[in-house]
Amino acid sequence: MKIVVIGSGTAGSNFALFARKLDRKAEIIVIGKEKTMQYSPCALPFVLSGKIPKLEDIVVFPNEFYEKQKIQMMLETEAKTIDRKRKVIITDKDEVPYDKLVLATGSKAFVPPIKGVEKRGVFTLKEMRDVREIQEYIKERKPKKAVVIGAGLIGLEGAVAFRELGMEVLVVELLEHLLPTMLDKDIASIVQSHLEERGIQFRFGVGVSEIIGDPVTAVKIGEEKIESDIVLVATGVRANVDLAREAGLEIKRGIVVDEYLRTSDPDIYAIGDCAEVYDAVTGERILSQLGTTAVRMAKVAAENVFNKNVKFKPVFNTAITELFDLEIGTFGITQERARKEGIEVVVGKFKGSTKPEYYPGGKPITVKLIFRKDNKKLIGAQIVGGERVWGRIMALSFAAQKEATVEDIAYGETAYAPPISPTIDPITVAAEMALRRFK
Amino acid sequence: MKIVVIGSGTAGSNFALFARKLDRKAEIIVIGKEKTMQYSPCALPFVLSGKIPKLEDIVVFPNEFYEKQKIQMMLETEAKTIDRKRKVIITDKDEVPYDKLVLATGSKAFVPPIKGVEKRGVFTLKEMRDVREIQEYIKERKPKKAVVIGAGLIGLEGAVAFRELGMEVLVVELLEHLLPTMLDKDIASIVQSHLEERGIQFRFGVGVSEIIGDPVTAVKIGEEKIESDIVLVATGVRANVDLAREAGLEIKRGIVVDEYLRTSDPDIYAIGDCAEVYDAVTGERILSQLGTTAVRMAKVAAENVFNKNVKFKPVFNTAITELFDLEIGTFGITQERARKEGIEVVVGKFKGSTKPEYYPGGKPITVKLIFRKDNKKLIGAQIVGGERVWGRIMALSFAAQKEATVEDIAYGETAYAPPISPTIDPITVAAEMALRRFK
Fold it and tell me: What is the Cβ-side half-sphere exposure of residue A269, based on CA atoms within 13 angstroms?
């Protein structure tokens, strides 16, 4: 069997590795535009800030690693057309026949049509070359004032990186608060204060209308002109679906796949940022576009290419980040989004400490849990705190994945030791708060 | 209604607080031997090491806090007899009538009948006065060589405290490896190496037969005499059941309760270290004797005293500790114990890193997962690593509490960010290892 993967990113590379684990003989070919196989796009802000010393380090494995596993790589190669009748991919160099095709074409940074957005000094932060270009620009021009457009994860991580490099930073967000798809306003405001205390400023509910100077010297927000000598555009990503669309596959916001990750053509799968998945809470098709989702889709698609019939479960989009010394973890639906979707929820919220009161070094932590009113199931969580947010979001996410109810959390077993956590964990208390509201 | 609680420790104090939340008017009386209400016994080793500066700090709330909640305290008072016919408790001072009685009599350190165990310089580490006595002894005699009898949690935490105070430390354990009820030998040996590198020595499969000198100057192991000027006996605890037994309640290793935490007398409940619970894996009655279990039993018993009919679920004994800079987390059954119980299991084990390879500061972590062969359910986990063990054991424990299978973990969603965790988490890989063995 000849399996061809288009895309050498996280989804494509992991697919190839999983597929090889499942079958020693199958021909596995990866077509990719870059010089290397997968690297970690989530790591780019940390290369920018200098926390990861070398850009090349974020390439997960050297090409030889894939060669040893007999994964054929056609790198620096662009797939131009899929001829589904002949089962052939036409690249800029060659024709590649396939038995099974896996689309892992990823996503690209979305750049809104702001006047002047093409000017020097305006960047996105999605690919390795973005970091190279930003680093060269910083070296050459030593910018002092940065504007970041968009207060999503990449925007905030980029803002922190700029701040850590010594710049004044202003984040401009069209919506009402930061991390608008991941957090509610009450929780976002905790993050905002934390970032403001560390010198990052915010403007919400407004957009940048123009970028002035070339290289950039300022941006315009309404009639106001704000000095800026570097601009990061972080307004989300869009699925790369052109190839799939031209091949006549079903597309909505991303490539449409069934629960086995097959597209409308049963010999073609789609995985990673380019493909839609099901939202575990709303049941709607969404673009998850998380690295973990890409890896998990790669695993399931590899199994299904070999006829294992594994279903890819709906996703909760469990996510974590660290901004300065604050951890932020989330999954599922926000209270704001639930309102829009008409889902009635019961919320429990608690601010506590990460350690028992008597143990030195505890840090504030706020836990917000969102339960469905009709069946009491945990459908969302937002946690912000100085440490051990990750563990709590992991625990709650695994509980939600197993359809835990408010009682399961309120009466659940936690792990306690004085240097690590309180006897009665903040997640337990938040669930108790919600439980009382159910009565 | 007049509710009387015997025992002012974690279980008793929390019961009183939960009961007050549920009913503003009920008369709630706590009879306790100490001067204060609950303190955290788990914190004692950390007071000893100096990490918690003041012993008094580990008292969770001052007595005024309970007074404000109209919880009547009869402290420095010993309950002598329960007259179930008259529904009266006879104390060393008074008679106290009750409508509902809650036994929270706790546990005491078990001291094996070693020759000389009563001598000066031999201590347990179970109560506040133990720490006071050890600290006075250390101040007065400046011991240089410590022997710890027992390599359970308290033994190891005590050994670390002694080591941090500058002593040479030898731990003597009758069984084959450290933390014998929580870990298998393969995982225990990682912990052992870590402690040995930091100057703690071990002897396994042997016991101390005699304590020499008064104050102690040495211990005997077989015919061998080992110098020692302080000895900690940490050979477990025993449930305090005398009062319940004399009252004619059903007793096995602890006070027997049903799933509503009622004893064989429907007006008497038992909670915390003195009461038996059901083991979530074996279904057997066990003594859990964890602080978290005590609190959780207190909550359920409080609800049931007010006729809420809440069942106390079987326990996995989820636990965590930190020894120097190593975190150790466990729950459920070990592979060794499963063998003894005749439970067939499939194991997945993986050694990885706590962060992606490209991110500086990742630490080794070993994950061992134990699944039932017949139904694939997760029934045990052991994790040892330099950081973020707690989050992983919390996530896995919540998953197990919701009856997660090997697939649920292998395909589960985790939260990933470069500074925090790898894209493919070690728990996922360990589950994949096990999954392959099922096939």
Answer: 33
Q: What are the residue numbers of the active site of A?
A: 42
CA A45 to chain centre: 13
Stretch 45-84 of chain A: residues touching chain B, C-beta under 8 Å: 46, 51-53, 57-58, 60
**pLDDT tens figures, A281-336:** 999 999 999 999 999 999 999 999 999 999 999 999 999 999 999 999 999 999 99
Which CATH code is given to the segment(s) A319-434? 3.50.50.60
Inform me whether the C-beta atom of residue A328 falls under 8 Å from chain B C-beta atoms: no
CATH of domain A122-233: 3.50.50.60
Does residue B439 register a pLDDT over 90?
A: no
d(C-alpha A332, C-alpha A400), whole Å: 9
Contacts of A296 in chain B (CB under 8 A): 411, 413
Q: Mutating which of B325, B389, B394 best tests the A interface, going by the most A Cβ atoms within 10 A?
A: B394
> Can you tell me the distance from the alpha carbon of B425 to that of B439, in angstroms, rounded to the nearest whole number?
22
Q: Considering the domain B2-38+57-107+237-305 in this protein, what is its CATH number?
A: 3.50.50.60
From the candidates A358, A409, A428, which should be mutated to test the interface with B, based on the most B CB atoms within 10 A?
A: A358
DSSP B71: E
Q: Are B17 and A423 in contact (CB under 8 A)?
A: no
Q: How many CB atoms lie within 10 A of CB A266?
A: 10
Query: How many Cα atoms sit within 13 Å of B22 on the Cβ side?
Result: 23
B321 within 8 A of B384, measured Cβ to Cβ:
no
ipTM of the complex: 0.96
Kindly state whether A397 is in contact with chain B, defined as any CB-CB distance less than 8 angstroms: yes
Class of B325-438 per CATH? alpha beta
Q: Is B328 near chain A, with CB under 8 Å?
A: no
Q: What is the Cα–Cα distance from A365 to A433, expressed in whole angstroms?
A: 16
CA separation for the pair A172, A201 (Å, rounded): 9
Which residues of chain B lie closer than 8 angstroms to A321, CB-CB?
Answer: 417
In CATH, which superfamily holds the domain spanning A2-34+75-106+237-305?
FAD/NAD(P)-binding domain (3.50.50.60)
